[in-house]
Amino acid sequence: GNSVTQMEGPVTLSEEAFLTINCTYTATGYPSLFWYVQYPGEGLQLLLKATKADDKGSNKGFEATYRKETTSFHLEKGSVQVSDSAVYFCALSDRQSSASKIIFGSGTRLSIRP
Amino acid sequence: DAGVIQSPRHEVTEMGQEVTLRCKPISGHNSLFWYRQTMMRGLELLIYFNNNVPIDDSGMPEDRFSAKMPNASFSTLKIQPSEPRDSAVYFCASSPLAGDSFTDTQYFGPGTRLTVL
Q1: Rounded Cα–Cα distance for residues A78 and A20 (Å)
Q2: Chain B residues with CB-CB distance to A106 below 8 A
C-alpha cells in the first residue's frame, strides 16, 4: 500500500542554518504530496503541497519539489528561525473510488537554537 | 472564515465513563476525518466520512469507539467505556470535495486533549 517515510528526529539547528528534512514515498498512481506543520499545542496546518511531478511547493521560505524519479519530496529552507521550531509531517494523498484520504509520515521534530 | 471547531478542548474523565468529542467542519466541506495522536503511536486515522457516510473505519481501535455524522455540519466521536490507554489528543479535519475532482488538502481543528484517569 501507499506509505511515507521521513527523516527521524529530533533535528536541532542554530538560527540561520540550512534545513533539509528528507521524505520518500511509495505510491501507485500520481498522488499529491504535502508538508504539514504542527506548532506546540495546535493542530496540523498545511505548509505546502505539490500535485504533480516536478512541481515545487513553497511557503514561508520553505520549499519542496515533487521528484517522481526518486520518489522524494524533501523539505528545505535556506535560513531557519526560532519560530520554525515545530513538528513537520510529510504526507501523500490516497485517492479511492469515492473519497480521498491522506497518509502521514511519523513526523520530524525540529528545534532551532537562538 | 471559521476553521474546524472542536469541543471540548480538554476533557478529564475517569475510567469507565462515556466520553463524547464534537466536531464542526468548515462549511461546504464534504469530507471529515477523525485522528488520534499519541507520543507512542504518532498520528492515526480512526475513521473518515464523505458526504456524511462513513467510508473507512478500519482505524477505529475497538468496539468501544463509535463515530457519527448526522449532518454536514456536525460529527461526534464517542468512547464508551473509556480506558486510560485512550488518553490522547483527538483531531478532527475536513476537506472540500469539488465536483468530480478531489481537493486533497485537509484542514485540522485544534484538537481535544483527553485524559482518562
Answers
A1: 9
A2: 42
